Task: structure prediction
Amino acid sequence: MGTSVLKSLNDGLHQIMGDDERVVVMGEDLLDPYGGAFKVTRGLSTKYPGRVWTTPISEAGFVGVASGMAIRGLRPVVEIMFGDFLMLAADQLVNHAAKFRWMYGDKVDVPLVVRAPMGGRRGYGPTHSQTLEKHFLGVPGLAVVAIHPLVEPGELLRRAVLEDRRPLLFIENKKMYARSLRRAVNGQIGPMEVFSNDAVYPTMTLAFGGLVGGDVTIVAYGGMVEIAVAAAERLLIEDEIYAEVVVPTELQPFDVQPVADSVRRTGRLVTCEEASRAAGFGAEVSARVCDESFDALRAAPVRVAAHPVPIANAPTLEQKLLPDIEDVVSAVRMAIERPDSSIRAGVG
Amino acid sequence: MGTSVLKSLNDGLHQIMGDDERVVVMGEDLLDPYGGAFKVTRGLSTKYPGRVWTTPISEAGFVGVASGMAIRGLRPVVEIMFGDFLMLAADQLVNHAAKFRWMYGDKVDVPLVVRAPMGGRRGYGPTHSQTLEKHFLGVPGLAVVAIHPLVEPGELLRRAVLEDRRPLLFIENKKMYARSLRRAVNGQIGPMEVFSNDAVYPTMTLAFGGLVGGDVTIVAYGGMVEIAVAAAERLLIEDEIYAEVVVPTELQPFDVQPVADSVRRTGRLVTCEEASRAAGFGAEVSARVCDESFDALRAAPVRVAAHPVPIANAPTLEQKLLPDIEDVVSAVRMAIERPDSSIRAGVG
Amino acid sequence: MERLHEPGPEERFLQTPGSRREKLYRQMRLIRRFEERLLRQFDEGDVSGTTHACIGQEADAVGVINHLRRGDVVFSNHRCHGHFLAFSDEPKLLAAEVLGRRSGVVGGRGGSQHICWESFYSNGIQGGIVPVSVGMALAEKFSGRQAMATVFLGDGTFGEGVIYEAFNMASLWSAPILFVVENNRWAQSTPVEKELAGDMVARATSFDIEAGQIASTDAEELYDHFQPLVAGVRESGRPRLEVIDTYRLCHHSKSDDKRPRQEVEEHRKDDPLPKLRARLDDSAAETIDEEVEERIEAAFSWALEQPMANDEELVDPLVEAAP
Amino acid sequence: MERLHEPGPEERFLQTPGSRREKLYRQMRLIRRFEERLLRQFDEGDVSGTTHACIGQEADAVGVINHLRRGDVVFSNHRCHGHFLAFSDEPKLLAAEVLGRRSGVVGGRGGSQHICWESFYSNGIQGGIVPVSVGMALAEKFSGRQAMATVFLGDGTFGEGVIYEAFNMASLWSAPILFVVENNRWAQSTPVEKELAGDMVARATSFDIEAGQIASTDAEELYDHFQPLVAGVRESGRPRLEVIDTYRLCHHSKSDDKRPRQEVEEHRKDDPLPKLRARLDDSAAETIDEEVEERIEAAFSWALEQPMANDEELVDPLVEAAP
Ligand SMILES: Cc1ncc(C[n+]2csc(CCOP(=O)(O)OP(=O)(O)O)c2C)c(N)n1
Ligand SMILES: Cc1ncc(C[n+]2csc(CCOP(=O)(O)OP(=O)(O)O)c2C)c(N)n1
Ligand SMILES: [Mg+2]
Ligand SMILES: [Mg+2]
Result:
């Protein structure tokens, strides 16, 4: 058993607070012995008593407080207990934190990190299971990072808190907390070779036997990464389909290059997200891939996503409406079965 | 001078209130003689005194109040003074109004209409000029309609208020209020022939000389419609490029068919929106067009959008950062100059 | 809107045979045993996610809701089992819901935090239900119906700004609504001193809303206390806020209690159930206990036999409700 | 953070020669004439969008801000010209900003509703600035600096729930912040009776925030009134709210005044400028008027000569500030 995502985040926070006195942590129910709803902040209030602010249930208010602190020189890390409650802080993020720097003529920085645990599969029902970051993509001035087990989450958090001057949404996934990190061993993660673009928030590319070209590119982030990797392994075994899995960490601004490069090798694209399909991350990825490597696309991209309904409480229903390995596998089959338009005749 | 968009909406509201006593109107500064910031509600409080509720400055609160009213049988029409303030009501829309029906086992309807004037070009600066509806696309259960001068806005509002049982964002455009409706005369709007798909919220297709095939499909909604039509006219004159302009009215759920049909005729797609590009409506349209008619696309779609910065107050800067006719014209030229991938050889 | 179940809570309460004391005890016993059974099912792995019991606070539900009439709106929050059972007397539907069955109150879609049954509603976002309830109260009044609304909120929920927006509008527009604050002195793991500055009653009165406070876990006392308050809202057509000082004897949500052990133990002496039971004669109490046991057993065994929620088709509500 | 301009408002005020009365009048005159000139430029088509003048409320700005020190934070709202000029004494920068010039306070990006100059900030969303200011106050305290924060809000802004979230946290966490409420009895076109139930001072005290109210447009009186209040916040490290009952003698934003003519006229007798000018001797007043006239003329003619804002390149702030 390796380090869990939860431990990595918790260790990371301990170190970040130890390294920089400007770092303060803020959110609901953070104090020990409780230590936060998902225990990401456990131990912090004991070790750094004056720097952990347990808050009233005031998501808009404390995101606002934190962004004021950020402007005046602190490095606040805010926890939104369930990412669903981010909607309460939408105005503070969109009309305050994200705008300040540019509209104030670049005179201020707002180094604010807002951590938000997203995602379902834990039976928490319609208001505690959503994957809402898509609604915060494309806000000028607001960065969005989503962790996954392939890159040390604690290290990503350190970069976000200490090295990044931008207001930043840091998306975690509740189901992922208990998962072990999947560190590369000899450049491999399981049967796949893994490549990083070495960005501050790296994009990882996984491929069977190197970047030698495959049948399809699967893009997945956050909670869908594990599912995509499992689907890739299954596709190889069951269908002899070679998939490359590309895992972006920074969703906004989004560097399409690693995806476009992969599509140049594979000609086909499947995107995966846990949210519902419409106007989501997959749409943006598809559009950007079209921008960059349309000529390499042999068939239309396929988007894997949730059904467009609230996340049900009943586990059977929840499971049915959220995308899973089977959905990714089918999407890849569909992408591959689509007629190869690179050999079609002219149209129109 | 024909009827203005503003007059159509105001007349529409008068009639809707006259026709159905369940309709109540709610928002900031609605009472006569002021009659609302943009005068859309002018005269209503005089004519229907008990049914116009001027509110405190409480966007979340009164959207919540209205959604409670909707569940209990009224037909509330809420005005958000500037669409920018919708962010304050995000939780009420996403986690309350939009969810109620499905999560309550289809036991309730929430026939709530929230009108939001969006858009810039009036010098109102960073917090009063945004086009934020993209952040509300893809919310399960929430419909989004955007008016434009090609379809009577007052009639669209009537359908939204009286015929639609869904919570619905009704997007207006501040700059458009003063514009005249552009009604078809003999099936023509200016030099273009106009076709409707006859949906409740119709999609309009404009083309020179009928749907006989053209060089490019331009998709534009809301405040970009006029700009797209002007660009199409200029492209014909300056470049002899024949554009079809497709104007969706309902953005969510989005019926891609008319766009896909047009792309089948033209092979090229340009999308236009006033918001910044990332994760916007254009991305969704592109992805949907790929779903439906990828084989007909001869080149990558091009998205026209704003620069990813807040909307500046200074008119020179504002003009520079928002998309205009010139930007649409360039995008079309770019789309047309892109190598025709339908005649390319195989890839990979 | 749906056809209404007959009769409403007040009528049902009055029509039920037995002394008032017995009836209040029976309801509380039903709530208590429902939740204890639910927690057992939880431990057996039949409940997914989490669940918020109201053990220790049952007297609030029966003290307030028994004064409500058919068509009156109740909006509750995450801790809604007691409110729902007092309102509906439908343990079967609630059991099926929390067990994720198709025959649950809302077909398993909501779980107990997100249900709707006649004019009873709940939602799991703190605070947001308060303006919605104000709107419901206003709609009832506007439509000329005689109904009023009641919304339940906790001390912690006083952190959410939207409730003050709702207070302001309720007061300005004279909404017939009763705000019932269950002050159990904790919000999840946070004691009230760390979350709340000043005073809840003063907050309400500063919006020109009449408000009061009662420290009690005595169902009879609360029943008497709320009778005129409910009548007052109905007659005046004005909002009212009432704080009940109470205590939660269980965890916040399934198994997350870090409150000082001693504090919890001290509050056991205020447990509303033994308090009221002591006033009944033993055989009456025993009869009730047995009767409740049977209902709970019946509800859960029925619920456990129901098919799991798994709608044949997941239809997009936007498409389904489109004009 | 930026290097600070020297000296702060208080120091500058004390160092300026002349009587206190003269100095207050000079500042108010500067604000008044600045806005009158701005409205003229507006009518001449030089200002795009809209603009919110504070004509009639100048005494608030000078009464409060002259007690603030270098590094103290001020957060203002849509109606910020007076606050900004009292804080910065920089009419040129503000003129250039509202005229959309590159040399404006924030290069024309913000317009007066959205500016930042040293520790002065403004934003155009009602309410949201209040928690941000609380955070700023807490950061100053946390960092061991002696600074405090002042945030200006209007009566209408009491509709926004987030201000109560901010009050609660300011009180719980002892933020050194002064909430200055400019109660001009109207929010845009809405009279205070239609927007505000109850009482603003009581709302604050219900969060255990000391609060008071003063009805005055007398700059000297306000200056005296706020001196101990500012000192109190600084010394106690606790929040304080103070309501100033005042009146706006101009439209809400450019040309949208539908208030009863008579009501407005009646309030002209409370115009803070003639009120204070009457206490000066005539020649001193005339000298000040001329001096201000020159500064305003200089500011606007300078501003009108500046190049329009039109950044050579529109850089994505996410890319520019990326690590
Ligand atoms: C907007 C929002 N923030 C946070 C939560 C998580 N949460 C659920 S219950 C709760 C505590 C509520 O405390 P209180 O209002 O006192 O009610 P109690 O649980 O004591 O009955 C919290 C923080 C939530 N459901 N919604
Ligand atoms: C969130 C939000 N809602 C609405 C507005 C539009 N608006 C600008 S000023 C104003 C009135 C503010 O009234 P008040 O707080 O009394 O300040 P005053 O204008 O009287 O100085 C309104 C409604 C806004 N800017 N922000
Ligand atoms: Mg509580
Ligand atoms: Mg005012």
About this structure: The pocket of thiamine diphosphate (ligand 1) is lined by residues A 28, 57, 59, 81, 85, 88; C 78-79, 124-126, 154-157, 182, 184, 186-188, 252 (CB under 6 Å).
